[in-house]
């Protein structure tokens, strides 16, 4: 009996170690930002006026996680108003290039960087959004992302009870 318990304990410990080793860290999120996002949104997250919006203290980043995940996975085209300024740059889709863990690490980084104070994004949340929007082949518009059906994390209790986030024009 002790041998079985010992083997089970060893397997559990090994699984935990492997899970933590495979999970992207905050450092990984920052590295992804610097290699994939910085050229448009800049090292300080303030973007380029009129072209690429800031990521600092904007509801597009600190608000609804599902909306932000959709935006990163499938990109966005068209005008978007952030902090009273209209931006017209295009956001490329990253779903073919970043794993769920990488998207989670990246979004957690930007939701916590530059004075932002928002919850972490998990790989499970990214996976649920990715699955729900798997057939999407075009970038989102700001108007589409404001629709309640394009917010929240599919299959979560939060999605059933949350009010739609309509404050993206901050």
Short description:
This protein has 170 residues and is mostly helical.
Structural description of this entry:
The longest helix has 21 residues, at 2-22. Strands 1-2 form a two-stranded antiparallel ribbon. The protein is globular and about 65 Å long. It has nine helices and two strands, in the order αααααββαααα. α2 (26-36) crosses α6 and α6 (100-112) crosses α7 (123-132). The chain has helices at residues 2-22, 26-36, 38-41, 59-62, 65-74, 100-112, 123-132, 142-146, 157-161; strands spanning 80-82, 85-87. It has one domain (25-161): Cytochrome Bc1 Complex, Chain D, domain 2.
Question: Main attributes?
Answer:
9 helices, 170 residues, globular, two-stranded antiparallel sheet, mainly alpha, Cytochrome Bc1 Complex, Chain D, domain 2
CATH topology: Cytochrome Bc1 Complex, Chain D, domain 2
Total domain units: 1
What's the total helix number?
Answer: 9
Proportion of residues in extended strands = under 5%
Global geometry: globular
Assign the CATH superfamily: Cytochrome c-like domain
Spans where pLDDT lies below 50 across 5 or more residues = 4-23
Query: Could you say which structural class the secondary elements and strand pairing correspond to?
Result: mainly alpha
CATH architecture annotation name:
Orthogonal Bundle
What is the residue-mean pLDDT, rounded to a whole number?
Answer: 86
Helix fraction, binned, reads 40-55%
Q: List the quaternary state of the chains.
A: single chain
Strand numbers in spatial order across the main sheet: 1-2
